[in-house]
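Our platform keeps sequence and structure together, in a single record for each protein. Such a record has a labelled line for the sequence and another for the backbone structure tokens. Nothing more is needed to write down the fold, since each code stands for a local backbone conformation. For reference, a complete record is included directly beneath this paragraph:
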Amino acid sequence: MGDMFRSETMVLCQLFIQPESAYTTVSELGEAGCVQFRDLNDGVSLFQRKFVTEVRRCDEWERKIRYIETELKKDGIVLPEIMDDIPRAPNPREIIDLEAHLEKAENEILEMAQNEVNLRSNYIELTELRQVLENTEAFFDDQEVLNLDASRKSITGDDFIAQQNRGRLAFVAGVIKRERIYSFERMLWRISRGNVFLKRADLDEPVRDLHTGHMVQKTVFVAFFQGEELKNRIKKVCNGFHAAMYPCPSSHTERMEMIKGVRMRLEDLKMVLNQTDDHRARVLATVSKNLPTWSIMVKKMKAIYYTLNLFNADVTEKCLIGECWVPTNDWMIVQRALADGSAQVGSSIPSFLNVIKTNEPPPTYNRTNRFTQGFQNLIDAYGIASYREANPALYTIITFPFLFAVMFGDVGHGLILLLFGGWMVIWEKKLSRSRGGGEVWTIFFGGRYIILLMGMFSLYTGFIYNDLFSKSMNVFGSVWKVHYNYSTVKDNPSLQLDPKTFTEGVYPVGMDPIWQLAENKIIFQNSYKMKLSIIFGVTHMLFAIFISMVNHANFRKWSNILMEFLPQVLFLTLLFGYMAFMMFFKWVLYSAKTDVQAYTPGCAPSVLIMFINMMLLGSTPPLDGCNELMFEEQSKMQKIFLVVALLCIPWMLLAKPIYIKLTRGKKVVNHDDDSSMDGEHEDEAMSEILIHQAIHTIEYVLSTISHTASYLRLWALSLAHAQLSEVLWGQLLHIGFAVPSHYVGPVLLYVIFAIWAFFTLAILVMMEGLSAFLHTLRLHWVEFMSKFYDGLGYAFTPFSFAKILNEEEEE
């Protein structure tokens, strides 16, 4: 039962494993997930360790798996999720088969990818060639080209011979990206000094770019020129602009024959591409079924070899030695894992554990489940508990949602939280598989049980406050009865009800709904909620101080119970605990139906003024017929309380330093004795001890006052939440209900309700809920945990395959 209240006991063990069974043994320990290994090779780099070759081998396999996953994503194939039958790490015989499967899958996909690239390249080239041939047909029939060729042929005599010597009219045809055509045309003009005639036409359909995979717009061009030198220049420009040049006959008949041949080749190539795609789809579908299993097996293998690199070999190199922290409750699980690991490889020499003693503080391990994990995360966010320190998470399960509900108390808003938290809890298995919600969704889902309890407690406090979206619920009727006649009520807009004559009994639970109509509702709720916040605060802090006593007893610091716990609890109880008691006493003592003038509500003294007078040794003159104090000898008792509380200050300040001074230098025989716990002060100067104790004392005394006042946030946020809800109702829904029109009213009410629902969710549930959550968190971290919680430990991080896979999946 003790492990429910504090971290589990841990032991440091030395692990001896035979090399032939090291892999399987560590695999079994990873499946168990209850051992935290220590690195025994701190001075050795990662590249000089024993199993670095195996780790690199696993890295190579992970690279292959990532490549296969990339190819699967290209084809839109979704990998199946492994939810139940998670594969174990492969045994040494299965590793060879796994490597062969990965090698075969990668080579086959690489070959298919290369073949596809070649086929796609040929298909694109043939497609562009077909488009060039089809578009250039119009270029050669163009009148400008015909006139250019005719003018060349009309030259006679010596000029004709010179023209022939310069060369016939030639051309170059090709395809270029559309955005480059204007720069390309200007460059041709410059290199030829205007002696190139360019014809172009934009392609209607985009073409896929092999390098990027995107669809690009292209343009077909034909450049007419004369001379071999100009031809070389044009080709260089085409290469510079990455323009693809294609052969194009000048004869119409030859172009038609070439178009026909290209079309036939395109049809054949399209058939081959379809068959290639079908084969690729079949291969990838087969691989996708096994890839998640392969991925998990490789990750587990890599984790095993990485862990084995933490081990050290003995002098004979015939045994691997490791050190690990083991929870005592999991000792038998570790022993069974060692036996199973040796049995899998048929080792004749079993592995075994030895417990070793150490002065190093063990890690902190609080065993949690789905329900308690969220609350434990709240505590760990402040600081990991010191080893075997009292765990606040257990008490936070109740105190956190309750204090939240005190500030958020509303039946309607609490029901929204309850439904949201209940939805996440009921469908948690399905929702836990969704990874696309982002960081905000992860936070909400991780705290689903916290939200559920906050909604439940908000329903309770909302019922106590009798608050449902700023409206009261008339469940039990009202104990206030109006005895005025009709004319009195009609003629007086404001009437006062005397509780002595207008009440019948006590309202069963919570707040009477008639307070919703009272003009002094805010005054009444102010007093009621302020007193509740002080009572809850003092109770919460007293509980924290008693937990500190449990810590002192657990660590055998018996002297701290007398020197720290006792003066602290006396100081808080005799001052603020006394004030909380007087609040209850005032509620019981004074009544409207009493016949004694001194005990009527009008004579009830203010508890706050009475407490101030107690601290300042002052007094306040009472009203006629009233008493300043509530009972006889109260003034004497208050003085005794004040004196004892003031004496607690030097008690806290000097008792521990004097004790350390008297016990210093004595030999410690029993390590469980109280004096052994003060060994930490053995080498510390007395002046430093006094300064430290003075700081601790001043901090506690001042924090007792400030922390008590800090709990008034319960009152302030509760009133603010109720007033915001009332303003939202009065300014929106009240307007919709007041519209008299039979046609406009329902439509307007529908619109106003949508606006009201939006602001209710956005402001009162989300913003106010977050504000109340943060204030509750502060009350626990500062006001509650500062009384007993050090939080100086470090978390137990076991070697667990499940944890490794979950972390990688989240990343």
Notes: The longest strand covers residues 169-177. The chain has 25 helices and eleven strands. Residues 148-167, 667-678 have pLDDT under 50 and may be disordered.
